[in-house]
Amino acid sequence: MERKTVFLGFLLALSMLLSYIESILPFAIGIPGIKLGLPNLIVVLLMYLYGAKEALAVNLSRILLSGFLFGNLYAILYAMTGAACSFCIMLLMRQRKCFSVIGVSIGGGIFHNIGQMLIASFVVESFAPVFYLPVLLIAGALTGFVIGMVSIRVLPYIQRFHKDNIS
Question: CB burial class (10 A; 0-12, 13-18, 19+) of residue 146?
């Protein structure tokens, strides 16, 4: 149990580092609001390594800590809403067992953007942000694919490390 807690703390720190890296990366492709979703790599890995409870705890902790360190309350609000939608769909897709890691990650990327557009519409009291949704859905699918591909490559190594050192 103690080793698991240390490992989860390490993954939380890693996800915060990925958040910070993403915040300073000049990912300017001419479309505002698009990010790679690097911290979601940790969420996907935890979902497959441990399950929903650990993935959720690390993700919520990362959002709160990163938001207070690198952002503001609006950043936390948008991140929490996107993460909630993303997490719910990833959990459902994972439980169905008919989606690959890549499929689950793509679903998470798409629904993260849907959640953020819903909260944006609420905050500005207009449906205008929803018109930007098609662009963000494509971006969410592409970044979800990339995170899924990386997850497939990294997961066997983490599982082997976990089996040898944590279990």
Answer: middle
- The span from the CA of 48 to the CA of 159, in Å, is 9
Q: Residue 37 gets which letter from DSSP?
A: -
Q: Is the pLDDT of residue 96 over 90?
A: yes
Q: How far is CA 156 from CA 25, 49, 151, 161, in A?
A: 28, 10, 9, 9
Report the first-to-last Cα separation within the chain, whole angstroms.
Answer: 9
Please give the Cα distance from 145 to 142 (Å, whole number): 5
How far from 124 is each of 21, 27, 90, 121, CA to CA, in Å? 29, 26, 28, 5
pTM for the whole thing? 0.92
Any alpha helices (H) in 2-132, and if so which ranges?
A: 2-24, 40-49, 52-70, 73-96, 101-124
On the question of pLDDT at 36 being above 70, the answer is yes
Cα separation, 124 vs 77, in Å, equals 13
Token pair of 82 as six digits: 């996107």
